[in-house]
Amino acid sequence: MIAYFDLDSDKKLNYHDFLQILLPCDDAYLRAAATQRPNNDIPKCEFLPMRVERALSQLIFKEVRFHLKADQLKRNLESSYDFTFKKAFNAIDDWTYGYLDQNNLKRFLRSTGHVATKHELVSILRRFDIDGDAKINFKEFQLGCKSSLSVFGKGGKKVSRPKSGTATKIARMQLSPSRKSI
User: Fold this and answer.
1) Average model confidence (pLDDT) for the chain?
2) pTM higher than 0.90
3) What distances in angstroms separate CA 147 from CA 44, 74, 87, 151, one per listed residue?
4) Residue 158 DSSP SS3
5) Which residue, among 2, 3, 1, has the nearest Cα to 164 in the 3D structure?
6) Is 98 buried (19+), middle (13-18) or exposed (0-12) by CB count in 10 A?
7) Burial class (CB in 10 A: 0-12, 13-18, 19+), 95
């Protein structure tokens, strides 16, 4: 999970990375209010209020559980003999925009029998969109669909999710969407 939110690939969550987990991308007012209010320093020997620590631990627990379940589904998808990222992307990008947005996702999900709510569509965008433009390009789609846990590839060699240096630079320059708990 750390690797998913760690934009600079240092295996640590800095303050900006941490905000990506906590703050919603679809509520600009709440995002601004939370990031612009005065912060109180808490000495190392003190703790957050119990209700805040409990809520934070529940959020992290739900994120970990979600990532483990999603990663298993991603590995199953990757191992399908007839799956390619390009074919999957093109199936969703039905009007060949070159990117996926709420409209593409909504039409695709409806065609597969699921009528998605606006909240579900925003959640999908939030998980995949790295640069914060509310669109999912092919590279973001591919990174979002790849398993993030280390798995053994052919020949017993460890394979892990690749990082995009360009996407990392863009994401650090812009305030990209955050992730809420599931």
Assistant:
1) 79
2) no
3) 36, 5, 18, 8
4) strand
5) 3
6) exposed
7) exposed
* 37 Cβ contact partners less than 8 Å away, ≥ 6 residues apart: none
State both tokens at 15: 């303050």
- The amino acid that residue 62 corresponds to is K
* 158-170 pLDDT tens trace: 444 444 444 434 3
Cβ(110)–Cβ(103) below 8 Å: no
Over residues 90-141, the pLDDT tens digits come to 999 999 999 999 999 999 999 999 999 998 998 898 888 877 788 999 999 9
List C-alpha distances in Å: 6 to 16, 144, 154.
9, 14, 27
- 158 vs 155: CA distance, rounded Å: 9
Residue 141 token pair:
């789609």
Q: Tell me how far apart the alpha carbons of residues 133 and 156 are, in angstroms, rounded to a whole number.
A: 38
In the chain, the amino acid numbered 78 is E
Domains of the chain: 2-173 (1.10.238.10)
User: Comparing C-alpha atoms, which of 11, 36, 46 is closest to residue 175?
Assistant: 36
Residue owning tokens 């809420």: 180
